[in-house]
């Protein structure tokens, strides 16, 4: 065990959890109507709790178990069987590696929340998220990070997929799942209501930015120069994408908005995620600069051309950003085109199939969408019996 590495990953684990609670919850919560903000908080918090337990039960073993299968890790480490405080994963206590990866398993299904807010059934959210994490996220994590079919020496060649912190494992899977659910679910009854609290959005985005240092820097799994470089390029990409998003918004619409500025931040962070362990600061500027414009155009296409109500633009920002960053690794010569594009296609097809099947199956168990009256009145009071703001008290 290395004490410095351990200390850093303990901090990184806390930072990644901070991304979901409260960062993502505030970012998403500020973007919806006031009558639905508590439902968003409820989704994010409940998913964090449920995924933590399921990661212990089976998720960790499926993703990082000792199975010789290239498709999944088996169940030998279910309930952390055989793992104690003395067990090691590299230079880290294995229980710490478990906890760090658990925070990724929390935020990935939580990202999908942004696609279906304001009209989804709570029972569906919990059931789908549980099954999707175990049957989609965990196997893909094994394929790329756990020595599976897409890693070095796998089906794509000696040089496997390069995905440092989750451009494919986290952002492509969550983005595609979000898009599919949005299509099946259908649009909101009222798509024109503006974000109820841009201030919440900014605070949440700022928390995500800080937490992303643990997300990307922690993925080095060591306290060294690689972690420092990953943090540096992460910051530079986020800063650049924020500005290019705002500038492009000003050019197109005449005004640069706060919500747009910080959405650009998230686009830059998602885009640098797969490449953060490989690129230089200048390459990070390029990735961020393009991401701010590319993801904004993706928002326009999905909303206005395809007419898909991906409510909080999960696919346009996270999905497109993660895919773009994954491709840039090959463009900069830091990975092979075969592995990067092949990984995107294989994981994309797998995610699509699993997500469609799960949505159809879970919808047979619990309602997919709330009724029209509940949607009109808001999920906070109708589903959870609470209001976010009581101005009469």
TrEMBL record:
Domain of life: Bacteria
Residue ranges crossing the lipid bilayer per the database entry: 6-28, 40-63, 95-117, 124-144, 164-185, 197-215, 227-247, 259-278, 284-302, 314-335, 341-365
Ribosomal protein found in the keyword field: no
GO cellular component annotations of the record: plasma membrane
Pfam annotation, one family: Ammonium_transp
Gene3D superfamilies: Ammonium transporter AmtB like domains
Molecular function in Gene Ontology: ammonium channel activity
Record InterPro entries: Ammonium/urea_transptr, Ammonium_transpt, Ammonium_transpt_CS, NH4_transpt_AmtB-like_dom
Alphabetical UniProt keywords: Ammonia transport, Membrane, Transmembrane, Transmembrane helix, Transport
Family: Belongs to the ammonia transporter channel (TC 1.A.11.2) family.
Protein name: Ammonium transporter
Species of origin: Ruegeria halocynthiae
């Amino acid at each position: 065990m290395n004490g410095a590495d351990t200390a850093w990953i303990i901090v990184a684990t806390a930072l990644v959890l901070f991304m979901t609670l409260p960062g993502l919850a505030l970012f998403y919560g500020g973007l919806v109507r006031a009558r639905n903000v508590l439902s968003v908080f409820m989704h994010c918090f409940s998913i964090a709790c449920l995924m933590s337990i399921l990661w212990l039960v089976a998720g960790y073993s499926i993703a990082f178990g000792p199975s010789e299968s290239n498709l999944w890790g088996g169940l030998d480490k279910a309930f952390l069987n055989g793992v104690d405080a003395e067990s090691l994963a590299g230079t880290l206590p294995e229980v710490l590696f478990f906890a760090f990866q658990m925070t990724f398993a929390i935020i990935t299904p939580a990202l999908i929340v942004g696609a279906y807010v304001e009209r989804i059934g709570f029972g569906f959210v919990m059931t789908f998220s549980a099954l999707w994490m175990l049957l989609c996220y965990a196997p893909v994590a094994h394929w790329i990070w756990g020595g599976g079919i897409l890693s070095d020496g796998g089906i794509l060649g000696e040089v496997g997929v390069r995905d440092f912190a989750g451009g494919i494992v986290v952002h492509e899977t969550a983005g595609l799942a979000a898009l599919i659910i949005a299509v099946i679910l259908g649009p909101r009854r009222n798509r024109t209501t503006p974000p109820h609290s841009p201030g919440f959005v900014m605070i949440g985005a700022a928390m995500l930015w800080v937490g992303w240092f643990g997300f990307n820097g922690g993925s080095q799994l060591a306290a060294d120069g690689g972690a420092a470089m990953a943090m540096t390029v992460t910051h530079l990409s986020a800063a650049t994408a924020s500005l290019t998003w705002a500038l492009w918004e000003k050019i197109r619409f005449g005004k640069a908005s706060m919500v747009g500025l910080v959405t650009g931040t998230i686009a830059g962070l998602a885009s640098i995620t797969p490449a953060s362990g490989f690129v230089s600061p200048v390459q990070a500027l390029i990735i961020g600069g393009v991401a701010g414009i590319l993801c904004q155009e993706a928002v326009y296409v999905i909303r206005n051309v395809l007419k898909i109500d991906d409510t909080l633009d999960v696919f346009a920002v996270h999905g497109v950003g993660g895919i773009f960053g994954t491709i840039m690794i090959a463009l900069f010569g830091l990975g092979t085109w075969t592995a990067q594009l092949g990984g995107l296609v294989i994981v994309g097809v797998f995610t699509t199939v699993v997500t469609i099947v799960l949505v159809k199956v879970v919808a047979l168990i619990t309602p997919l969408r709330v009724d029209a009256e509940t949607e009109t009145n808001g999920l906070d009071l109708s589903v959870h019996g609470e209001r976010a703001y009581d101005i009469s008290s």
